[in-house]
Amino acid sequence: MKAQGTTPAFVSLGNETAGGLLFPYGASYGQPDAFAKLARFYKAGYQAVKDVSPRSQVIIHLDAGGDDGKYEWYFGELEKQNVPFDLIGSSYYPYWTRKDVPTVLGFFERMYDRFGKKIMVMESGINWSPVTHDGIEGQLLDNGPVPYGETPEGQRDFLYELFAGLKAVKDGAVIGDLYWDPVMIPADGVGWQVGGDNVVSNTTLFDFEGKALPALQAYADN
To answer: pTM for this one?
Structure first.
């Protein structure tokens, strides 16, 4: 990537790594000095990124945006181990977190104040249909506490509120949001895992036929 001039702006060292990474050695629990061991992997990963691309920003990513206790614990332990990183990554789904937008915005501000790191929302998703293309409930069983129905318009309006809220967090502390999953529309052989069902076709930014949904207007207006 460096040779062709396309080094990334951001590199995440793993995905939702609350449990650690590179098991069993890098687990964040169940062993003596767990975070000391995990810290060695994070430090090596950080240095590897910077050796190749000093301007790339390194992210450490947890699930459960809005869970103060989890983030205080995890990033607090990394702080004790002097683990270097540039951004906090956080997943925010109304269904999984049971938190509305104003609630999670307060969480982002608290984490920014506590750790002094800006935040990238690494995953956000919501249903535009209550069922998948197969007529079954998908991964997200509902839209949680946000006041938007499982409709294309509801998905769009959720993103309008979320994007406006994220931009309003003080000091520009939240720098962006990545939607998940935007493109996993129905297709032969495409599923959550090999041979598995596609359980996210009703959370995409395109309908079951691949046509753009109104949610993309939220991106255009943003």
So the answer is: 0.96
